[in-house]
Structure formats: structure tokens, C-alpha cells
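tool=predict chain=A
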Amino acid sequence: MHTLRDRFGRRFSYLRLSVTDVCNFRCEYCLPNGYQGRPRGFLSVAEIRRLVTAFAQLGTFKVRLTGGEPSVRRDFLDIVRTVREVPGVQRLAMTTNAYRLERDAEALKASGMDAVNVSLDGLDATQFQRITGDRRFDRVMAGIDRALAVGIDRIKINTVLLKGLNDHQLGDFFEFVRTRPISLRFIELMRTGDNQAYFDRHHVGGELVRTQLDGAGWQPCAPGRGDGPAVEYAHPDYAGRIGIIAPYAPGFCEGCNRLRVTARGGLRLCLFGHGSADLRPLLARDDQLEALKTHIMSALFEKRPAHFLGQGDFGDTAHLASTGG
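tool=predict ok
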């Protein structure tokens, strides 16, 4: 069996598949003016099955469904069931703003969802609305609790670290995982095509979190198979973990193990790369599978050794919702 390796020896076992670029929140750092695109033309369930089958046959065993907000698709549960049934897919996850998680948690579990990442940038309703432009804080929190209650194996919180907005609440975030078996990861704010002024005002490095963790006795954990770039910390007095995702740190890309496909079938080799390889013409029929795999492997040799965020090159990423984050 062929495996997805690039010319630097990195193996790609993890696919982040966007199923829509529509999002119903207005997060300041991503879509402050709301969704402005065309909510049509996204990959069908059949196209998604063919795509995931090709990646699985190339050694990808973890798939994450993203957006936008993936649950805005009416056929999202059909997508979950379809991906879960693809031979070779061992782990299925999603990233969500959780506005429908309380309603859907049980159905997601029954459909084969292994892990849920919830985007949560504030721990009170006022702060939540300030950052997301949305008032459904209580619904999001209820969704997290419901996901825990139905037994979804892995639940993570993604918190974008924002200077002057939530960086003073680190202790509250730590406390959130004292009794919850959740991994809460702080993500450094990243520069994109439309957030220069916001980035300049609110970017703060992950070292702020690391210093507080070290001072409070948290210890770094060894990464698991197929895990992403987060460095996680554990503490004997806490049920959950704290993680840091620091894309501006030296060597961040050395262990890259993920590829991205956009909601309309574009293979993105890097979140902050330029252009994409159009896979959609090879997703129309089952008999195109071998050609699709060949196209994916060929495109992979164009992947760069690292992003160039530190040099001010953020690629052609207009905002994170456009590429699945």
C-alpha cells in the first residue's frame, strides 16, 4: 500500500476535511462581519466517501470534519455515518462551535463520532458574546456537558489566546478542567489575509501560558499516535489537561501530519500555503479512485518544509473558515 509521505519524510495520517465554509458565528478574529460567501457547491456525501476512501487507502487513519461550522449542513449526520464506514478510518472527529451539540451529541455518538473539539474563547456570556458575536453561550456550555454525558471519547476545547480579551482569565480556564476530563488547548492567534489590525492588537505568544503552567506544577505529556501539534500538560489535581498550539514557535512544522481539503474539493498542503490542487474532477465516479490517489501523491511533493508566518507570509488564506481552520 502506498503511504502519504512528502519529500521531507513526513507522513500524513490525518485529514482535515471541511464540509462547508458557512459559519453562523461572527468571531472577531475570523468572520467579524459574518459569512460573506456563496453557501452552495459543497462536496456531496458521495464525493466525500470517494475522497476519504482514497486518503484511507494511502494510510490516513484519522479524519476531522470541519467548516465553517459543519453542523449547519442538514446532511451532516449522513456525512458522519458515511465517513465512519470507510475501511481504514480508525478515528473520526469534528470541530464545532457547539451551538447544536446539546441536541446532536447522542446522534453523533451513535453515528460513530469519536472526538469533538469545541471552539470556546470565553467562559462567561459577556466575554463569549464580545468575541463571537453570538449570545448562545449557555447552549454551547450545555452541549459540552451533554457530549460528556453521552460518552464521546475525547472532548477538547479550542481557545484562541487573545491579548486584552481572555489572556487575563487563564486561571479560570485552568479551573474549567479541574473536574472535567477535557483537554483545553490555547491557540496562538494567527495572521490571515483580513485580520492585520486585529492581529497587531491581540496576538500574544503561548509562552504566557507555558510560564503559568510551569509555575503551578503542570507537567508535559508525551503525544499520542496521530495527535496534532498541541503540547499538552497534566496535573495530578486536575481531571483534564491544558495544551498549547504555538504555530510561531521554531520547528512547529517539523512533525506536520495533516492535510486539508476544502469544502469544494481543493487539497491544501498547508493552512498558510498558496493555492490548492483541485481534486473534485476525480470525485465523480468510483472508478476514478486510482487516478485520485495518484493526483494526491503527486500534489504532496509541492508541500513546503514549513510555513512562513514569521516572515509575514500567510499564504492566500483569507480567513480560517475558508480552509477549515
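The first helix runs from residue 45 to 57. The radius of gyration is 19 Å.
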